[in-house]
Amino acid sequence: MYVNNVSLENFRNYKNQKINFCNNINIIYGDNAQGKTNIIEAIYLCCMGKSFRAKKDMDLIKFNEKNAIVNVEFVKADREGEITFKIENQKTFFINGVKQSKVSDIIGKINCVIFTPDDIEIVKGGPDKRRKFIDMMISSLRPKYIYLLNDYKKIIEQRNNYLKQIVNCGKPQEMLDIWDEQLAEISSKIYDYRNNYVEKIKEKLYSIHKMITDCGNQYEDIKIKYISSGSSKEIFLENIRKSRNIDIQRGYTGVGVHRDDIIIYINHKPVASFGSQGQQRTVVLSLKLSELKIVTDEIGDSPILLLDDFMSELDEKRRTILLEKIKENQVIITCTDKIDIESKNKKIYFVENGICSQLENV
């Protein structure tokens, strides 16, 4: 699988640009704030239906313009296709020119795995960062999972609103039974998805991390554990009901999969608290390579790899391991300096002020 080209119109700092990629190594370099990451973002947008950094879709439109368009043409083992993203008053997606009724309809058409410097937050950040990591992986492979997350969010919002009404308006507590049942039902389904994919990560993570950290007598034992307030509808329901009085006092729901966490241990200690910066970055690399392997196994093809200024985060050894692991993938790399990667199939681009130019004779 690979992206053949991406076209940008009034997207971020690009007025009108088309970039043709090769199906192996593509290096995009230039100074900061010139538009390198915008190219990665545009491709990700057509893979996942959302930006990995913009909070508002309107932020994607070039300043003083009214709309933006991104078009990505891709090639898979069995077919070619294109996904178009348009944003004006709202965002709209098209597959091969046909308008899609839901954003989730495009997910899975192009599979990608993205590496960014912010991925260190998967290890160092709060539980929400780790939930987002696993949820995005699952969503890219099982688009129906998005509906579960959306339904869960709606139920939490409704229950939280009613919790406040119990205190402020004297509403009866018994009405919470409706939301508690729904919450327990969906929580158990989300738990099953997450637990399944954490187990898949676990299968890959140990061997990948051992390969990265194998330095003679330097051995690191890595483990990953999924922490949840339940594992079945019955357990979730019991715990939600136990927490009811506290929830009423606080005005929000304290039990459910929105509180889940994924703990990663190095030598039996949580790496978030006790790991060095080098260990934490190595864990991120191991997690992302595990994700890459899982996606490859699931789709039976090589996903597109987006490396946004990630190579600078790695030492020479880890760069070598990463490049060895991704040689079968199309790779699109952004960096501030032109890096030298051996490949017969390679394109290099220079970005300056929202203009991306391919360099000749490289």
What is the compact description of this entry?
Helices cover 41% and strands 23% of the residues.
How are the elements arranged and paired?
Layout (H helix, E strand, L loop, with lengths): L1 E10 L2 E7 L4 E5 L6 H13 L19 E8 L4 E8 L3 E5 L2 E2 L12 E4 L5 H4 L2 H15 L2 H26 L6 H38 L8 E6 L5 H10 L1 H7 L10 E6 L2 E2 H4 L2 H23 L4 E5 L7 H10 L5 E5 L10 E7 L2 E4 L4
Parallel strand pairs: 3-13, 3-14, 8-12, 12-13
Antiparallel strand pairs: 1-2, 1-4, 4-5, 5-6, 6-7, 9-10, 10-11, 14-15
Helix pairs in contact: 4-5, 4-7, 5-6, 5-9
Can you walk through the features of this model?
The structure is a single chain. The protein is an alpha/beta fold and 362 residues long. Helix content is 41%, strand content 23%. It is built from ten helices and 15 strands. Strands 2-1-4-5-6-7 form a six-stranded antiparallel beta sheet, with helices on one face. The protein has a six-stranded mixed beta sheet with strand order 8-12-13-3-14-15, sandwiched between helices. Helix 5 crosses helix 9 (277-299). The two termini are 24 Å apart.
> What's the tally of helices?
10
Largest sheet: 6 strands, antiparallel
The SS-based structural class is: alpha/beta
Instruction: State the helical fraction.
Output: 40-55%
Tell me the Rg in angstroms.
Answer: 22 Å
Strand content: 15-25%
Quaternary structure of the protein: single chain
Strand order of the largest sheet: 2-1-4-5-6-7
Distance between the termini: 24 Å
* Overall average residue pLDDT: 93
Succession of helices and strands = EEEHEEEEEHHHHEHHEEHHEHEEE
What is the number of beta strands?
A: 15
Low-confidence stretches: none
* Shape by Cα distribution: globular
